[in-house]
Amino acid sequence: AVTPELEGVANSWSFEHNKDKYNNQNAVNEFIQRYHEGLLPRGEIFSLMYQQHFDEAVNFFHVLYSAVDYTTFYNTAVWARFNMNEMMFTYVFSVAVLHHPDTVGISLPPLYEVIPHFFFDTQMIYQAMQYKMSKDPTIHHSVVFPANHSQITSMHTTEPQVKTHYFTDDIGLNEFYFYFMNEVPYFMTSHEVGMPKGIRGELFLFVHKQLLVRYYFERLSNGLGEIEKFDWSQDFPVGYHPTISLPNGVPFPEREPWSPIPVEKYDYVQEIEDVESRIYEAINSGHVIDPNYKPVNIYSPGGLDILGNIIQGNADSYNPHLYGSFVHLAKKIFGFNVEPFGKYPIYPSVLEYFTTSMRDPAFYVLMKKVVNFYMQYKSHMPAYTHNELIFDGVTIEHVSVDQMITYFENFEADMSNALWVNNLSDAEHFSVKASEPRLTYKPFNYQIKITSGKNTNAVVRIFLGPKYDVHGHVLNITDNYMNFLEVDLFDVKLKVGNNVVERSSKDSVYVVPDETSSHMYMEKIKKSMKSGEPFTYEKRSSGFPERLFLPKGTKSGMPMQMFVYVSQYEGTPAWTYESPVWGTMFDDGKPMGFPLDRPVYGFNFTVPNMYFKDVTIYHKEIEELNLTI
Ligand SMILES: *[C@@H]1O[C@H](CO)[C@@H](O)[C@H](O)[C@H]1NC(C)=O
Ligand SMILES: *[C@@H]1O[C@H](CO)[C@@H](O)[C@H](O)[C@H]1NC(C)=O
Ligand SMILES: *[C@@H]1O[C@H](CO)[C@@H](O)[C@H](O)[C@H]1NC(C)=O
Ligand SMILES: *[C@@H]1O[C@H](CO)[C@@H](O)[C@H](O)[C@H]1NC(C)=O
Questions:
Q1: What is d(CA 132, CA 471) in angstroms, rounded to the nearest whole number?
Q2: Average confidence (pLDDT) over 63-68
Q3: Which of 130, 187, 348, 593 is most deeply buried (CB count within 10 A of its CB)?
Q4: Any idea which UniProt keywords this protein has (predicted)?
């Protein structure tokens, strides 16, 4: 909220007088010029997907990011909070906090509290505003509005994809995607953020494949089957009717099922067809063309990273002129939004924000195309040989898993920030919450019995995959290897003889527990300041929500398989990396998704150090559970 102290800082900060407080003085000079020319005004809608907005945001990012110390960072941010476009500020600030050396590890309030319009239904936002208008602003009010999904429910027959809305609209999932996409922002190189060489592009492909598979699980659970395929000359099969609106009240664009691509998108279609065929040419010929027309072999160590970067078209791309950005173009097309005439106003689609793109089923159609590049690349590599898969002397004897249960819990999220307030006292008198059912699960343990002929380090990989397709046919691993989700990866020490590895789903490196609300966070800080006890919190600022560890089960049980694989590990990784989203990452010399990253022959894909275990996921009503969490 606006306090006089903050306003004081905002009014007195001068870039001209503090140029020496920034490492990147070019950025500061450019920013001063841009500012005098006129930046995107306050109140306008901002999206990184528009060139002018992008340029301004990136320029300001370099200013904030190059602040020499915390005080400068703080003053710059406060100045921007009062003087820049609100949405641009929020974006740049969130990303800068993630990366600036003086703010790394600082935990920001959950994004859904900061920008509720991007997370909560328009209906609820209106209810909240109406409520505020009708109440005496001099006394305290606290209220909870239940979500009303009647609109969504009524669409089940015409747009069956909405059956998975509890997943695609999940506030934790959408927040995760924002942080994942800004772990290395589009406009920064992996070198700048200190990410080890050669993983950015592979991580981009691997994580999107994981998200696609995770979404596919929800489809299976709801009887939906494969994600729609799409060709650029076709009408677009999947519709989308957003339930959220932009903060200025303008609705996000809609799309009816089987709509023709709008005429004003034809230039993008032309461009993306070219880009797509160039990428396939690179994959099939084995070479990416660099800016000097030299072929660069991509079937070599680091080759997949090169491929991933050209597909995303990020700052590490070898040749942005030739390969453009496939993902960017596809979002422009699938969004079905009106193209702006000038700098603003813009009419972005949900696909043009990282915080909302996962809501639209078109996102998964797009990701399927991206993942197809990845799979095509891997299909040109030889299948793993027996020697590459075996771990001599090591056998998984048995795997046992506790019951897997999912359910919906009601979650109350603070959306007070959606209210219009006149002053600080106004803001302090209203607390408005949205209550929504969220998918969650009962944490479970599993046990892996391993015999080993030697004392050795090992890496264990755990996957979850479908057992049947949507028609009830048993899936053979030959056709199903790509549908396995890697749910955990960890190292263990094995001793000669019998070993029992105990693990909880909560331990998974890929998930994080629920975020603390900013209210709770403040309470904890206050308590700690009063008592003098140290205040501790997670170093990792965001991640995939643990709640979504399992896909929604069914009443009679959804059959799935767990795949466990143990491999040799030297014990000293080639690199380790502290990722703000994935925690401590380490390299055991294997590609991401190993050993299911390459095509598998069902008839000989068997070694003693792998194990398939049938599991069943049940979905229960919260009342049926005897919860002791
Ligand atoms: C939900 O919204 C519909 C119409 O939009 C309305 O008829 C219904 O009463 C609402 N339900 C609740 C519980 O508010
Ligand atoms: C399975 O057979 C294929 C085709 O002959 C071969 O390339 C591959 O190495 C074999 N894999 C294993 C694990 O034996
Ligand atoms: C804050 O705004 C409210 C109207 O929403 C008004 O009633 C109140 O007097 C204002 N308080 C101050 C301190 O200006
Ligand atoms: C998968 O198919 C192969 C033949 O292609 C067969 O040898 C193998 O037993 C099948 N696996 C399962 C689990 O049914």
A1: 50
A2: 97
A3: 348
A4: Storage protein
> What's the whole-number mean pLDDT along residues 288-294?
94
Q: What is the pLDDT of residue 157?
A: 77
Could you say which ligand is closest to the alpha carbon of residue 479? 4
Angle CA 515–516–521, to nearest 5: 150
Ligand 2 center to 386 CA (angstroms): 7
Polymer length in residues for the chain:
629
As a whole number, the mean pLDDT across the chain is 93
* C-beta of residue 61 within 8 angstroms of C-beta of residue 53: no
Cβ of 148 below 6 Å from ligand 1? yes
60: Cβ contacts below 8 Å, ≥ 6 apart: 31, 80, 84, 88, 92
Say if pTM beats, i.e. exceeds, 0.90: yes
Task: Identify the pLDDT of residue 426.
Answer: 85
DSSP 8-state class, residue 359: G
Is 150 close to ligand 1, i.e. is its CB under 6 Å away?
Answer: yes
C-beta 426 within 6 A of ligand 3? yes
Out of 565, 604, 605, 609, mutate this one to test ligand 2's pocket (max ligand atoms within 8 Å of CB): namely 604
Question: In angstroms, what is the C-alpha Rg of the chain?
Answer: 25
* Element at 396 (helix H, strand E): strand 394-401
Give pLDDT, residue 227.
93
Q: DSSP readout, 317-329?
A: -S-HHHH--HHHH
Residue 604 in contact with ligand 3 by CB distance below 6 A: no
Retrieve residue 137's tokens.
Answer: 């602003």
Atom 10 of ligand 2 has which residue's CA nearest to it? 385
C-alpha of residue 493 to centroid of ligand 2, in Å: 29
Centre of ligand 3 from the C-alpha of residue 429, in Å: 10
Pocket test residue of 474, 478, 563 for ligand 4, highest count of atoms within 8 A of CB = 478
Phi first, then psi: what are they for 355, rounded to 5°?
A: -75, -10
**Domains parsed from the chain with CATH numbers:** 4-104 (1.20.1370.10), 386-403+442-508+549-628 (2.60.40.1520)
The answer to whether 511 and 546 have CB atoms below 8 angstroms apart is yes
Is residue 539 scored above 80 in pLDDT? Answer: no
- CA atoms of 162 and 238, how far apart (whole Å): 10
**pLDDT bucket at 628, cuts 50 / 70 / 90:** low
Ligand 2 in reach of 383 Cβ (< 6 A): yes
Whether ligand 1 lies within 6 angstroms of the CB of 122 is answered as no
CB 512 within 8 A of CB 538: yes
Structural tokens at position 459: 């890496």
Phi, psi dihedral angles at 34 (to 5 degrees)? -60, -40
